[in-house]
Amino acid sequence: MVNKNNVLMKLLWSFFKTGVIGFGGGPSVIPLLKYEVVDRYKWLSDEKFSQTFSLANVLPGPIATKMAAYIGYQVKGILGLIIAVIAHILPSSLAIIILITMVNGFSSSPIVQGMISAVVPVVAVMLAIMTYEFMKKTWKGLGWVGAVITFSIALILMEIVEIHSAIIIIAFILVGMTRYKWIKLFNKNKGDI
Amino acid sequence: MLFEQLWEIFVAFFISNILGYGGGPASIPLIYDEVVTHYNIVTPQQFSNALAIGNALPGPIATKLAAVIGYSGAGVIGALVALFATVFPSIIALMILVKLVAKYKESEGVRGITLFVQPVIAMLMLVLTWNMSQNSAIDIGWLQTIIIALFAFIAMQRWKWHPAIVIVIAFAYGGIILPFIT
Fold it and tell me: What are the sequence ranges of the domains in chain A?
């Protein structure tokens, strides 16, 4: 019983730490997480960690949170999962709610309004940098012709046809899935000949 | 009424995170589409505040956004519902896939998905960037927007400053200087 609680405390502490240290979102936390999980507590082997990470990477949703869930589950089942996830996301969630409430409380003050306004361009720049990174990934994955074509189609559907973004993504998912089936089919035929 | 609001919050965060391929940041423009454009849970201004403060704080960005937008929409329960919708579906997906991969190993189909979702995310991100810039220009004018944006860009890309530091400087500039010139 004491031992079990110990492991849960370790899970809680590890994921609390990795949840409040990493700036710049989930991905920056991964090396830290690896240190805690693989090197320090040896909950997962190096290979298993990398495999889980590459899977978490291709699945939708926040990455570090998925890692927390999986590792928690491996270590201590459902209870471990819940503790790891809560320890990872709750502190920063509380912090942002408290901060926003404070900002809203003073929102009539011209100083606070100026502060809020001045941050919007910074956020725009951060988004621009992320845009560039996603464009680069597309360019690397599909080549520049593929990138220009997919960018144009996506933009036209979004801005001119005005289709809901979720539906556009689902359409592109279907294309992505079938594309690999075509390649497989093609390779198989070539093998037969 | 509350139930309806909670349902909207759930749907908004469920959709934007189950379709956000490429980690938390990929979900940002999708969350914007759902909570600002589609359901009007928060205003564009509230969203950019949440994003700014979220970027200034450590921890995963998607869950921070979920917490603060859910909270703005429907209080503590709203925050919990948004967090649940953000983390739960992808956790289930990972659990299932890890088991499947033990059998098949190849995940070409999944890789194909990511490859084709990225251009859409890139364009959504581009549109969101443009919207933010426009909102800012309406608020403080193009000149101030460009000055701050240029500084932020050089600080983060050239000087490799930490985003949190850049945001704190922007806060200071906005609090001390902006009230006297706009």
Answer: 2-106, 110-192
